[in-house]
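QA checklist item 7 of 12: single-chain prediction sanity check.
[x] sequence parsed
[x] length recorded as 376
[x] structure emitted
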Amino acid sequence: MKLYATLPCFLSALLLAGCGAKGQTDSAGGAPPPTEVEKEGDASLVKVDRPEQFPLATATRRDSVAELAVTGVVAADVSRNVPVISLASGRVVEIHARLGDQVSKGQLLMRVQSADISGAFSDYRKAVSGEKLAHAQLDRAKLLFDHGAVPQKDLEVAQDAADKARVDVETASERIHVLDGDLDHPTAAVDIFAPVSGVVIEQNVTAASGVKTLDNSPNLFTIADLSQVWILCDVYENDLAGVHEGQYADIHVNAFPNRVLRGRIDNMGPILDPNLRTAKVRLQVDNPGFLRLGMFVTATFHGQQSQTRALVPATAILHLHDRDWVYTPAANNSFRRVEVVGGRMVPPNLQEIISGIKPGERVVSNALVLENTVEQ
């Protein structure tokens, strides 16, 4: 009886021992391997098998002044814009000039049929007739006064009437002159002449159109003297320290790339554009004849102090991800990619380096070939 009682306990112990050993084996066999951390190398270094196939170039030294290039547009000098107006209202009967025409001072621009000038001539003729009558009465009063036929006060009244009649004639004649009329040629039309020589840049009248009085009518024409023009440039806030009034700039016209003009800053706008953060800088330029209003130009301002730049072949600069890079030689058949700031181009096929490398350092002469080799 004791044997049968002990057997179940023995079997249970064996079963538990087997399960424990199996669990230890499974745990050791299914565990992940320990993590190994590998340090990443310098991403700017590239290693090649044959570095001699990538020729090197030595950056040379170049002394130059700082430059600032901005865009601008040709505009008329408002002090040279002359409006053409008419003090006589009426209707246009003739037009002898059009928008864009080159006109000379004194040239007939248009003719206006006006009741104002007709009324002015009528008033003038009446004033002249009244003056003749007043002088005749004055002569008669003098004769009678000399013979004692009239008192002195009658003579004085006649003298006053003659003086007033003369004033009326002067006033009527002056009105005709204001309306651009000619006393010797009475007419119902007013001729409008060009006050200055220049180009018609604005026209607000056509044939048979009405001309109103000065207070509620726009200019009939606007004539601009384009012998000198303005260049209006936009200079960013961060670049304003490099420009000042009186400074000269080289003007490159997009339409005439081989022509270079010279302009002087005569005004710097006191207000910044709140959206673009730019200020208007105005240059005065002599117009050689080919500048037209609205043309786009590039103005280049030159600094006062000379700066030292590195000069490398243009092919040594790699343009990647909106940045400029060069490759410099490193140890163990490697090249290091260095970020630089490229400057202006210099003939023949050279480019300045503003920052990143110094004169005397060596760079790969053709960075694009090395970059393609690395990517392969």
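[x] summary fact logged: The two ends are 85 Å apart (CA to CA).
[ ] second reviewer sign-off
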